[in-house]
Amino acid sequence: MTNVTAPEILVKQPSESRSYAIDFDKLLGAVETISSITSVLSTPAGPTISGLTIVARTVEFRMLGGTDGTVYRIEAIIITSDANTLEGDGLLVVRDA
Q1: Is the pLDDT of residue 5 over 70?
Q2: pTM for the whole thing?
């Protein structure tokens, strides 16, 4: 049985460059680990995503830019130690506070 989690909601201002993480803990088996990151993308395109890193059971990355008032869907796809392909989702709200 697969665990289903709600997407994380991330918030930033348009000019900020910030680090974020998508947690795969609830999707991974007890001893399963993240072997590699296939991609981290935003829909619609807009923010620059860089610095992809695996830290324990999370994927960390840096985001720069984005348009005020836009909600972006952030999708991270990974390959696990058990050869599973998993997708973690988050929502990025860009808001000029």
Answers
A1: no
A2: 0.86
